Amino acid sequence: MVIGCNFCPFAAKAVLRKSIRYVVLPEVTLESSLEAVMEELRYLDRAEDIETTLIIFPNHFADFEEYLDLAELAEDLSVEQDYEGVYQIASFHPDYCFAEAEANDPANYTNRSPYPMLHLLREDSITKALDHFIDPEGIPERNIAFAQEKGLKYMQMLRAACLEIAR
User: Fold this and answer.
1) 2 in a domain, yes or no?
2) DSSP 116-133
3) Between the CA of residue 14 and those of 17, 48, 60, 80, 156, what are the distances in Å?
4) What is the number of domains present in the chain?
5) Mean pLDDT for back-to-back runs of 10 residues, the chain (167 residues)
6) What is the largest CA-CA distance in the chain?
7) Cα dihedral sign for 65, 67, 72, 77?
8) Is this prediction's pTM over 0.85?
9) Is 32 helix (H, G, I), strand (E, B) or coil?
10) Which residue, 5, 94, 96, 135, has fewest beta-carbon neighbours within 10 Å?
């Protein structure tokens, strides 16, 4: 969905280069989830061929507010451990809802995923990619416009297809 809808114009290249690490954590606590975030940040420090890590929580953090707490704690921990400016943490959730947005706004689907996940990205890679992209600041607005133009039913259909593939 991210590549097909071009929500992230850099994702296809990372997939082709096999530079995405997928970490699936079926059984976790809040504490072990934060430990996993730190382990992955340290892993990225060592593995220069990996651009990004997706930490996936298929059986936990289904409640969006609980998930947002995890995302905030992970961000705080990364800052506390001197990773600010080195890595960025993006968030994706099945019930993702932007602040001020209605729950059924198709734009929310730009950050919806089959499972709750945290996306760890190298800041320097983001900077390099954005240097070669026209109007990078407009990416979120273009994504929102695309999702709203396609409409809620279309975005729901795409996500449902992702869920089928994920099973």
Assistant:
1) no
2) -EEEEEEHHHHHHHHHTS
3) 5, 13, 27, 28, 25
4) 1
5) 75 82 96 97 96 95 97 97 96 93 93 94 82 79 90 90 73
6) 43
7) positive
8) yes
9) helix
10) 135
